[in-house]
Automatic annotation (TrEMBL):
SUPFAM superfamilies: Ferritin-like. Residues 19-57 form the TRASH domain. It comes from the Bacteria. This is TRASH domain-containing protein. InterPro entries: Ferritin-like_SF (IPR009078), RNR-like (IPR012348), TRASH_dom (IPR011017), YHS_dom (IPR007029). GO terms for molecular function: oxidoreductase activity.
Length: 65
């Protein structure tokens, strides 16, 4: 495995995200809907999910992260 593959793998892992409101898999690098809560970036699949999160972020934010 070359350095490029390792970098690609690491990048993919960073981009991997989950919409905390509906549980859908999203890509943090490409999603248009993002919120920052307590220093962590959350991505969403739709503006509606982002809105839901923004209203009550403490309900959806992952306390283990
Ligand atoms: Zn969603």
């Amino acid at each position: 495995m070359g350095i490029k593959d390792i970098f690609k793998k690491a990048t993919n892992k960073l981009d991997e995200g989950k919409d905390p409101t509906c549980g859908m898999k999203i890509n943090l690098a490409t999603t248009k809907y993002k919120s920052i809560y307590q220093g962590k970036v959350y991505g969403f699949c739709s503006p509606g999910c982002k809105e839901t999160f923004d209203e009550n972020p403490y309900q959806y934010a992952d306390p283990n992260c």
